[in-house]
Amino acid sequence: MARTKRARKKRKSTRRRTTRRASARRTRARRPRRTARRTRAKGLGLTRKKQKKVLTVVAIVVGILILVALLQQGRHYVQVTYYGGEVARNAVSGRVTSAAIGAAGRGTIHVQSYNTGKIYTFYTGVRTDYNIRGRYPVAGDSVKVYYINDRGYLKATYIRIR
Question: Do residues 72 and 129 make contact, with C-beta atoms less than 8 angstroms apart?
């Protein structure tokens, strides 16, 4: 009787069922095991937490710089005492009160400043340049005069007629 029970038991076949090895057969649901050690981040070597800290600090610095720039915007950069209250170091913007310029371009023009109301006398010559060629300023024109101070004489270098 013992023999018949053994005989009934099905024997396992020694023949291979597939040509693929057991190590190559993996189901898709199975994930590879995670290693216990930490992996380094690629690039600059910053972890995600350090990147967030750096970005926060950079955002704060940029915000402060923008705030300072906006607060500076209201200030006047032309100092009244340094420039004499004019447009720039060697520029006066105003209205021509009188002009006496000859055919050669030599003469004088008197300009009343918009900022201070002071009347300046500018000497024009052959080297004086105008934004409209061949047209000299006349009384009543709005002009901006760039000049040099030559031993107390204000010599106009460029006259922009507006």
Answer: no
Q: What residues have CB less than 8 Å from 137, skipping those under 6 apart?
A: 96, 99, 109, 130, 143, 159, 161
> What is the dihedral angle through the alpha carbons of 92, 94, 97, 100, rounded to the nearest 10 degrees?
40
pLDDT band at 139 (very low <50, low <70, confident <90, very high): very high
pTM score of the predicted model: 0.49
The burial class, CB within 10 Å (0-12 / 13-18 / 19+), for 99 is buried
SS3 (DSSP) at 20: coil
CATH fold, domain 80-161, is: OB fold (Dihydrolipoamide Acetyltransferase, E2P) (2.40.50)
Conformation bin of residue 105: beta by default, left when phi > 0, alpha when psi is -120 to 50: left
Q: What single-letter amino acid sits at 7?
A: A
Q: What is the DSSP string of 47-92?
A: -HHHHHHHHHHHHHHHHHHHHHHHHHTTS-SS-HHHHTTSSBTTEE
Q: What is the pLDDT of residue 146?
A: 94
Looking at the predicted structure, is the pLDDT value of residue 1 above 60?
no
Q: How far apart are CA 6 and CA 95, in angstroms?
A: 125
